[in-house]
Amino acid sequence: MASLSDRILHTCVGAPTYFDCLPGDVLRFCIMPFLGWEDRIHLNMLTPPGDRTPPNKIPKDSLIGHQLYISTNEMTVRMNEFYRRGRVSQLRRTADILCSLAALNKKTNVVLYQNCSMFRTMLANKLAEFSEPINIRRITRVKQREEMKMVINELLEKMAAHPFSHDVKAKVWLS
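-> structure tokens emitted (175 positions)
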């Protein structure tokens, strides 16, 4: 009786799995078409390089559009909370603005001002408004003033480092 290693036509990646017993054609044409994106990645991680199937690549604009959708929803929720409070103290208003600017400073939100011209111009206008000396002097706490200057400078540097490339429509890629 032949051992399992005699029937395997390829080398295993790590510990042997059930997929090592299957021919590459079965993996490629009978299993892969029915797997989702992440499952394909995981299956490719379990198979040797020669048996891996190239994934159907997602178009880059679709990935950017999906990230725009997520980032836009996050910022919309943040702004709705900000406006729902109504009239608040200057300290609370400044803290909310700093929180929103810090959220824009996250690496995942770079697509907002890199691929949405309307948002980029609005953000540039707001940063110019917030950085005016009159508005900086209105902030009563010195720590908040310094933090506001720092966040504005970081955002301006990021906007300079990530210039506008092209408009992408925000849309959901996966359900």
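The chain has a mean pLDDT of 81.
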